[in-house]
Write a structure and sequence with these properties.
Elements (H helix, E strand, L loop, with lengths): L28 H17 L6 H6 L13 H12 L2 E5 L5 H9 L2 E5 L16 H12 L2 H20 L2 H13 L2 E4 L2 E4 L2 H4 L2 H9 L4 E4 L2 H6 L10 E5 L2 H10 L2 H10 L14 E3 L4 H12 L1
Helix pairs in contact: 4-6, 6-7, 6-11
Amino acid sequence: MAGAVDSDQLPQGAAPDWTVPQDWARYTPQEHATWDKLFARQSALLPGRAAPEYLAGLDMLHLSRPGIPDFAELSDKLGKATGWQVVAVPGLVPDDVFFDHLANRRFVAGRFIRRPDQLDYLEEPDVFHDVFGHVPLLAHPVFADYMQAYGQGGQRALRHGAIDKLARLYWYTVEFGLMRSGEGLAIYGAGIVSSRGESLFALDDPSPNRIGFDLERVMRTRYRIDDFQQTYFVIDSFDQLLRTTLDTDFAPLYRRLETLPDLAITDLLPGDRVLTRGTQAYAHAKTDANRAA
Ligand SMILES: [Fe+2]
């Protein structure tokens, strides 16, 4: 994941592209047990909730040994499916490094795993979030192409000074996206499928808004990183997502966005295709509780 780190902060022991060896042999039995526990819990919860494309890709994570996947074996298997690889990084990486990896079909993943007392919430993405959340869809040909297109778009956005706008597309699709599925909705964003609480909340709770995906709308919308989302955007299909990303000329769009105000997380606009007008009861209850504390 990319973040507020500078290129000159390359950690000791990391290669110039910020990758490090995964050191699979160094994981303890307890760390493997944490993976297995999270894996069992989420795989039981997700059928009927996650997009069929994601569920089909989960098989990718069944390797020759249980526990935390060995990135070398995982990359071998994933490479045969879509040409993607998974590489380990020590933590957040600079934007340009992140985009270069994606543009070359390399997904950067954290190698550490959360402590047993952090099963439900973790601020920094660990190997469970990165691998369980992201890798299954990298096995899907269309989504795999979308991730590469995003990386290439990121390289262009850097030149336009528009990273904060483009990052919202990643946030509201790759991390917290919903899609239409049959009669209802399904989750596919990595931040949702790797979280027990948000797997339930994103689909079932009346609190959040659920709005049809619109690229410009998404790139104007702020987001929150500290709790469940207050607005989700719903795509029709991965084909729609890929086509929109490939067919849009982003340079004039970035210029227009500079003239438009950002939107608050819960704003609803007249042109929105609103699937759920959220009550925001969950977020309001949290705010009230914090005020009382
Ligand atoms: Fe992520």
